[in-house]
Amino acid sequence: RVRCLGHIINLSIQAFLFHKVFIIKELEALDEEEDLGDSEDLPLLSNIEKQMKFRLLGPLGKLYNIVVYIRRSPSRIARFKALARRLIPLDNRTRWNSWYTILDVALEKYT
After folding, report:
1. What is the DSSP letter of 85?
2. What Rg do the C-alpha atoms of the chain give, in angstroms?
3. CA angle at residue 41 from 62 to 93, to 5 degrees?
4. CB-CB contact of 87 with 81 (8 Å)
5. Of 23, 52, 86, 106, which residue is most buried, by most CB within 10 angstroms?
6. Which of 55, 57, 29 is nearest to 44 (CA)?
7. How many CB atoms lie within 10 A of CB 91?
8. What is the pLDDT of residue 98?
9. CA dist., res. 111 & res. 29, Å (int)
10. Cβ atoms within 10 Å, residue 10
11. How far separated are the first and last CA of the chain, in Å rounded?
């Protein structure tokens, strides 16, 4: 089976970023939760476990946790938008450049 270049880049980046922190089953479960919203059907990882796992990614994981925290509340979203005039996008595992976009926007707002 031949995959497109974008898919190969996406898989390579995920392997590079997550190889020491997440197993494939956990990443797939996170994708399902994102698609369905926060389901009550016994998620594979609790929110605290997810935060701790992403924190193991270093500064990138810390940024991810901050973005998730902001996006969990409409009032925090409104406050952040008022201060930064833009939201930091959340990652998307099917887009190879989503982590780059998160960093690009965060660094743009930092400077």
Report:
1. S
2. 15
3. 40
4. yes
5. 106
6. 29
7. 20
8. 79
9. 35
10. 19
11. 44
Q: Assess contact for 73 and 79: CB atoms under 8 A.
A: no
Q: Is 101 left (phi over 0), alpha (psi -120 to 50) or beta?
A: alpha
Query: Looking at this protein, which amino acid is placed at residue 26?
Result: E
Return the structure tokens found at 24: 């494939």
- What are 52's two structure tokens? 């701790």
Give, in order, the Cα–Cα distances in Å from 40 to each of 8, 27, 36, 37.
33, 18, 10, 9
Separation between Cα atoms, residue 11 and residue 14, nearest integer Å: 5
- Contacts with 67 (C-beta within 8 Å, 6 or more apart), sequence order: 88, 89, 90, 102
pLDDT (0 to 100) of residue 77: 92
DSSP 45: S
Structure-block tokens of residue 74: 């409409």
Give residue 98's identity as a one-letter amino acid code.
S
Kindly report, residue by residue over 67-84, the tens digit of the pLDDT: 889 988 999 999 999 988
